[in-house]
Design brief:
With about 180 residues, this protein is of the alpha+beta class. About 30% of the residues lie in helices and about 35% in strands. Bound molecules: coenzyme A (COA). Coenzyme A binds next to helix 2, strand 5, helix 4 and helix 5.
């Protein structure tokens, strides 16, 4: 794939803007109930129409400057592993929310950690944000572990913050400030 100025390159990954051709892979991986069940924004079932609409929204968010989302792909293979990005980018408060998922066949190989670290670097160095935060369900400790490994701090728990089906669920918040990030380098 041709490099574009928004590509982020890490040791094993190429993070690039999602394109319509990604829709089948995104549908297959995000359609796994383990993904929708552990994220706050992915519906289940998830079909190609939803994936295509999401890809169109990514372009709109990029144009508006409110979202910067990347397909997480193998640097050498081009294989799509998942999605990551900054959402709710708010210039007034100089902050953004980090979100991500990695397809189940690729779990526990360090891909989420590698992608999160790259996006933090992008958010602080290129976008010059002051704060990046992430929400995750407290019953999903793997997500908290990824954020810990990227030096984000556990800031608290929002009790029963979301309703999923019949249950109210707790959400944990991790965050990191620009000064903390730059001084940890
Ligand atoms: C959470 C998720 C992104 C992790 O992706 P990944 O590529 O497997 O993450 P990594 O390999 O970089 O790191 C996973 C870490 O969690 C740990 N982990 C895995 N399962 C765990 C569990 N049940 N409890 C505690 N830690 C766990 C792994 O051991 C690893 O830590 P380590 O390197 O110290 O051993 C992936 O599982 C996923 O997409 N889940 C569904 C969607 C989701 O949860 N998105 C994030 C919420 S917004």
């Amino acid at each position: 794939m041709t490099e574009c100025p928004l590509d982020l390159i890490t040791r094993r990954l190429l993070l690039r803007i999602p394109v319509l051709e990604d829709a089948p892979d995104i549908t297959r991986l995000a359609g796994d109930p383990e993904i929708s069940g552990n994220t706050l924004e992915i519906p289940h079932p998830y079909d190609q129409k939803a994936a295509k609409e999401w890809i169109a929204e990514v372009s709109a968010g990029l144009r508006a400057g409110t979202e910067m989302l990347f397909a997480v792909t193998g640097r050498n293979t081009g294989e799509l592993y998942g999605v990551i990005g900054l959402m709710d980018i708010t210039r007034e408060h100089s902050r953004a929310k980090l979100g991500y998922w990695i397809g189940r066949p690729y779990w526990n190989q360090g891909y989420a950690t590698e992608a999160v670290c790259a996006v933090l670097d992008y958010g602080f160095r290129i976008l010059s944000l002051n704060r990046i935060y992430a929400f995750y369900l407290t019953r999903n400790p793997a997500s908290g572990r990824v954020l810990d490994k990227c030096s984000m701090r556990h800031e608290g728990v929002l009790r029963q913050h979301v309703r999923r089906g019949d249950a109210f669920e707790d959400i944990a918040v991790h965050g990191i400030l620009r000064d903390e990030y730059l001084s940890s380098e």
